[in-house]
Each structure stands twice: as C-alpha cells, then as structure tokens.
Amino acid sequence: MPQPIHILHLHSSFSLGGKEARAVRLMNAFGDAARHTIVSGVADQLGARASIAKGIRYEIAQDAPSLTGRPSVARYEALATFMRRFDLVLTYNWGAIDGVMARRVFPRGAPPLVHHEDGFNADEAGGLKVERNVYRRIALGAAHALVVPSEVLEGIARKTWKQPPARVHRIANGIDTALYAQKPDPRAIPGLARDPKEVVIGALAGLRAVKDLPLLVRACGGLSGRFRLVIVGEGSERDAILAAARAMGIADRLVLPGFLDRPYRFVGAFDIIALSSKSEQFPISVVEGMAAGLPVVSTPVGDVPRMVAAENAPFVTGGDEVLLRDALQALVLDPDLRARVGAANRGKALAEYDERVMIARYRALYAEALHRAGALG
Q1: Contact in structure between 184 and 155 (CB atoms under 8 Å)
Q2: Between the CA atoms of 179, 180, 184 and 187, what dihedral angle is there, to the nearest 10 degrees?
Q3: Beta strands 5-11 and 34-40: pairing type?
Q4: Which residues contact 336 (CB under 8 A, 6 or more apart)?
Q5: Torsion angle, CA of 314/316/317/319, rounded to 10 degrees?
Q6: Cβ contacts of residue 163 below 8 Å, gap of 6+?
Q7: Cα(86)–Cα(70) distance, integer angstroms
Q8: pLDDT per residue over 233-258, tens digit each?
Q9: How many CA atoms within 13 Å lie on the side-chain side of 365?
Q10: Which residues, 6+ apart, have CB-to-CB distance to 211 below 8 Å?
Q11: Which residue, of 204, 262, 271, 292, has the fewest CB within 10 Å?
Q12: What number is the average pLDDT over the span 157-176?
C-alpha cells in the first residue's frame, strides 16, 4: 500500500469559517490517502478540528515558524525549511501568504504549493491595498496554482495580481446538498421556540465587523409582521448586534445562540436566509440556504448575484438598511413567494453546488501538482 501524501496546511486561523470547513471536508474525503499537519497563525483558534472525521490522520503543528511578522530573509528561510518536510503545501488567504513568499525566495527542494484565496477581511472590504497586491504578484509566481471560488476573485487574480490564466483555477464551493433536504431538528437552536405565526429570518456568520450584522438588525427593525431574527455565530461584534437590537426595539425578537456545528440540522428551521456583509466572494451560507429551499436576501457582494436562482435576483439588493428591509418585507408577507423562490434556489444548488463536483476538482488539482495521478483517491 502506498504511503499517504503528507499535506501541510497553513491557515491564518483554524476557527470554523468557510475556508476551514471546506478544507476539513476535503481532508475527510481524502481519507487514508493523506495525512495532514495544520498550522494556525493564531494558536488558540482551532475550532475547525472538531469537524475532522474520526480516523483522519492529522496533527496541529507545535514547532512551525510564525506566519506573521515583518518580512525577513531569516523568517522566509525558516518557513521554507519547515515546508520541505511535506509532499504538498496548501496555503490559505492573506494570513498565509508569507508561506508562498518563502517558497519564492527559497525554492530549492521545496514541495509543490497551491494557494487559496477566498476573500478579504474588513481592512480590504472597501478596496484592495496596493502594497498587498504587489506582494501577492511577486509571491504567487512560486505557486503551482491559485484557487478562487468566485468569478469576482478570478478577475482580480488575473487583472490585479497579474496571474496567468493557466495558474488560476475557479472551483465553486460545494456542500452535501442531500443533507439539507431533511427536516430540521427542533432542538438544534438553543433559545428558538418556533411559533407558526412568525417568519424566522436566519443568518450564519462569524460576528465580525465585515459581516455588518448590525445593518441586518436595523433592516429587520423596520419590518411589519411577526418575525424572529436568528444569527448563528460567535465573535467580537456580539455587543454591537445586541445594542442595535435594543435601539430598534427588537431585542426580544433576536436570538444569538452562538456557534452551532452541522448547519444542515437547523437551516431548514429558517424561512429566509439573510446576508448583510460588506465583503464576500462565494459565501457558503448562501449555498446552505439554497440547498434547504430558502429564499436569500443579501447585499450584492462577490458572486451572490450570480449564485442565486433568477427568481431570487430581486432580493439581492443594495447595502443600506432600507433596501435590505424592503427585500425582506416582500418575503415576510408572502409565504407563496418564499416557497417559489426557495424551490428555484434548491434546484440550482442541487445542479451546481453539490460537493461531489468540488471534491473531484480539488482532488485532480492536488494530484496534478504532485505529478501523481490518483494520489488522493
């Protein structure tokens, strides 16, 4: 039996967000064909490890050089030396770009590297930083491939980061859509007791500034009709969200259960999935809502206008609370409209966003980088 491929994952953090969830699904899919070493730039942010399947061989690196700090030859050399232990290196987002630069500066004996860019934090939500664009252009020349999930990011990679088309691979994020067809577990969301007369608006997001969840709260504060707003996630913006709800007089309609795993257990308990972010690319929460047969109300960020079914297009609207409120209001008051739009979304999710296609494309790309066909099953 061939030795498993030893893969190094360089993450800015390994808390459970979209990119981490995808990385774990791929780890689980590769099974015995690979073993994994994970580096988290923030040592105590390791929440995604709970989703790694039993039997998957992995470790959290304890001796890795820092992914952060001032650029220096010594730090690049330390990273390059560490990476030579592995068969394949996978780097994720700006927080791991120094791993890519280390391979550029010290290429001798380096394993193949695939870089993944999934979007931008609040510090680049309003526009990309020139110095980071230059750094990416230089570093990414060392990558076998750059993977992006969205058409918007694909355009940025080619035009702004000057990457040749052959290096850029757009692979849409996928999920196990069949799981979202099941009935939701009524106990899965602490603090939510379903009232059949209420419309439940749900959001799945880390409580971070870039997600602009107070905007969603303010939009809901202007709604007529009975509703409940459930925001599943945890983070530093919790107090700001609560303050916005109190200011709008809807604190009693807001449920903040914290982070909850296995969203297929509860997304179907929502009537509408909402997203209010300032910056996204291909948000997995939108795919999860679509797979559960829900209409999506969202700001027009990243690929969201292209992701949803045509019937949902009117509800992807501008980034202020009045436009978001109006999109929500139409759906809150019309259950038949919710059903029609949700059915169209589920059809598109089944056809285009099932994880089997995503896993097959990643498996083929990583095997190609290794020059070993079939290396990952």
Answers
A1: no
A2: 70
A3: parallel
A4: none
A5: 170
A6: 137, 140, 146, 157
A7: 25
A8: 999 999 999 999 999 999 999 999 99
A9: 25
A10: 205, 233, 237, 276, 277, 278
A11: 262
A12: 95
Considering the chain, what percentage of its residues have pLDDT values greater than 70?
99
Which tokens belong to 231? 């925001």
State both tokens at 232: 């599943």
Is the pLDDT reported for residue 218 higher than 80? yes
* C-beta of residue 203 within 8 angstroms of C-beta of residue 241: no
SS (H, E, C) the chain: CCCCEEEEEEECCCCCCHHHHHHHHHHHHHHHHEEEEEEECCCCCCHHHHHCCCCCCEEECCCCCCCCCCCCHHHHHHHHHHHCCCCEEEEECHHHHHHHHHHHHCCCCCCCEEEECCCCCHHHHCCCCHHHHHHHHHHHHHCCEEEECCHHHHHHHHHCCCCCHHHEEECCCCECHHHHHCCCCCCCCCCCCCCCCCEEEEEECCCCHHHCHHHHHHHHHCCCCCEEEEEECCCCCHHHHHHHHHHHCCHHHEEEEECCCCHHHCHHHCCEEEECCCCCCCCHHHHHHHHCCCCEEECCCCCHHHHCCHHHHHHECCCCHHHHHHHHHHHHCCHHHHHHHHHHHHHHHHHHCEHHHHHHHHHHHHHHHHCCCCCCC
The rounded distance, in Å, linking the Cα atoms of 70 and 154 is: 28
Residue indicated by tokens 């966003």: 353
Rounded Cα gap, residues 118 and 48, in angstroms: 17
Locate 85 and state its tokens: 């232990």
Counting every residue written for the chain, the total comes to: 377
| Burial category of 30 from C-beta neighbours within 10 Å (exposed 0-12, middle 13-18, buried 19 and up) | buried
Q: Which residues contact 62 (CB under 8 A, 6 or more apart)?
A: none
Take residue 67 and report the two structure tokens written for it.
């992914």
d(CA 134, CA 316): 33
pLDDT tier, 169 (very low <50, low <70, confident <90, very high otherwise) = very high
